[in-house]
Amino acid sequence: MRESSIQVCPVPLEQQPVNEYEELKESWFFQWATLETPLFWRKIAVVWIIGWFITSPIAAASFSPDQSVLRFVLLSNLGAGFILALILLQLFFGWHYVSDRLKKETIFYEESGWYDGQTWPKPPEMLTRDRLIVSYQIKPILGRLTRTTGMLALLMAGDSMVWLCL
Q: Where exactly are the transmembrane stretches of this chain (predicted)?
């Protein structure tokens, strides 16, 4: 019986891209992007509300809500949007990193530390499996994160335009 080339992979288990994908998919933070749409938007709303509560005291110190309600709301929205943008960027870059590792024909790995990196060419069946994971699992996640970030950017740009018109 022929031994599969996947079984003789010299890359440590925790550094194999498919295992990095599974770990990311199961992590508390990064699995947000894999949630059903209503749950995903609920998480996004909660982060935005928390961001609003963090930034509204700063906005209130700059623009009193009693005297300038619109400026206070706009500045609080921009601050909350900035915090949400950081969260979305972290999600995007985490998933993008794993996607890149899965797409590559070789795996870069470290045997015992940062000073002795090696590369290992993926066998065709592993490369095919990894690229299917990217196509059917990760690309939709990256698309969702890109669209969400784009909508947030439009909202923040709208707030900025209103701010400039005041």
A: 44-63, 69-95
